[in-house]
Write a structure and sequence with these properties.
The protein is an alpha/beta fold. The chain has two domains: about 10-155, Rossmann fold; about 175-360, Rossmann fold (3-Layer(aba) Sandwich), CATH 3.40.50. The chain contains twelve helices and 14 strands. Helix 2 (about 30-35) runs parallel beside helix 6 (about 140-155), helix 8 runs parallel beside helix 9 and helix 8 (about 210-225) crosses helix 12 (about 340-355). The longest helix has 15 residues, at about 140-155. The radius of gyration is 21 Å and the shape is globular. It comes from Litchfieldella rifensis.
């Protein structure tokens, strides 16, 4: 494979992050980097159908291509290859490398193809960046940014100045509109802080148990001042509504004000509703990373194993707006979430609430 020759100027760039929702949200800083380097850059993404709604909502993306995945027949794969050829991309940036995507980029004749130097899939790329992500020495979104900046360098474009959250910027009125809508639907007091809690994991991450989430909420509520006592809004993913309702019942028995967030028919509507949160508590899940992109204050609960550390899967909100908790090291119990000190976590969350409060609400 020959080295691609490029010259400065705007480019048609295809970015691939075709795995889980949280992984895709952690690609938004890299997408912002590519778009802000030159607003005329045309940024397309290749994503699976279930993350496509948020790809359409992303302000850094110009076009969305659907990935049929590996289970579809050859006709779908040939159609995707034909589409890629017709788009005449100048560059392919694969944030998570697989042989199938690398092969498609090579067969499509994309002249500049860049990916992490991992596994044998790298043979399809003519630019490779050694990252060793499995060592988890930096956040995933920073690994993605590193790749985006390397691509810009090879395109002869300078990276933009310092990027800062939110990576999903919304109009100033958007949060107020979401709060008004929820207040009307659930008869909530808009003057009180709203703490969203997402106890589900979609089966993708080690998480606190429902009993631990209930204990955490009770500790926070018990230690909070009158102005700090929150309304608890429980969110749920597909198939998790019953668990959210059970947690609501538990919290109400403990004297807490709790409601289950109304279901939203579209993923982007659910995602936008998270902007109404004053604080978002969850495991390392897609909704936690949506909240991070919105720069909502977050408290995430992680296992301590190297591939899933709080550092590796850090949310991309501002540093002063995020907390992360995991089991203490040692004893080979990195995934034993029962070893997390909920009392200490509750105090840290209350401190975060105080740091971002203003007249009883958060900013």
């Amino acid at each position: 494979m020959t080295q691609a020759k490029t010259s400065p100027g705007t480019r048609r760039i295809l970015v691939v992050r075709n795995d889980k929702l949280g992984d895709f949200m952690l690609a938004w800083p890299a997408l912002a980097c590519l778009k802000r380097a030159d607003p005329d850059n045309h940024i397309s993404v290749l994503v699976p159908g279930y993350t496509a709604p948020l790809a359409h909502a992303c302000p850094w993306i110009d076009a969305v291509l659907l990935d049929p995945g590996t289970v579809r027949d050859r006709t779908a794969q040939r159609h995707l290859l034909t589409t890629l050829r017709g788009k005449r991309f100048d560059a392919l940036l694969t944030l998570y490398s697989t042989p199938r995507v690398g092969w498609l980029g090579w067969r499509a004749g994309i002249p500049l193809r860049l990916a992490p130097a991992t596994k044998w899939a790298q043979v399809f790329y003519n630019h490779r960046i050694v990252q060793r992500r499995s060592r988890s020495r930096k956040p995933e979104y920073q690994y993605n940014l590193e790749l985006a900046e390397a691509l810009l360098d090879r395109l002869g474009q300078a990276p933009p100045g310092t990027l800062a959250p939110p990576y999903w910027p919304l109009p100033l009125t958007a949060r107020d509109e979401q709060r008004r809508r929820l207040a009307e639907e659930l008869t909530l007091d808009p003057a009180r802080p709203w703490v969203f809690m997402h106890a589900g994991s979609g089966g993708s991450a080690v998480n606190l148990s429902p009993a631990q989430y209930a204990s955490l909420a009770a500790i926070i509520d018990g230690q909070a001042t009158t102005a700090q006592r929150p309304v608890w809004l429980l969110t749920a993913g597909p198939g998790e509504a019953a668990a959210a309702q059970a947690l609501q019942a538990t919290l109400r028995k403990q004297g807490l004000e709790a409601a289950v967030a109304p279901p939203r028919p579209r993923l982007e509507d659910f995602a936008l509703s998270l902007s109404a949160a004053d604080l978002f508590i969850a495991g390392s899940t897609g909704p936690l990373h949506i909240a991070g992109c919105l720069n909502v204050p977050t408290a995430g609960f992680y296992p301590a194993k190297r591939s899933s550390t709080p550092l590796r899967w850090q949310t991309c909100n501002a540093a002063e707006r995020r907390l992360a908790f995991c089991p203490p090291p040692g004893n080979g119990s990195e995934t034993d979430m029962s070893r997390i000190d909920l009392e200490a976590a509750a105090q840290a969350i209350l401190d975060l609430m105080s740091a971002h409060s203003r007249h009883g609400t958060f900013s």
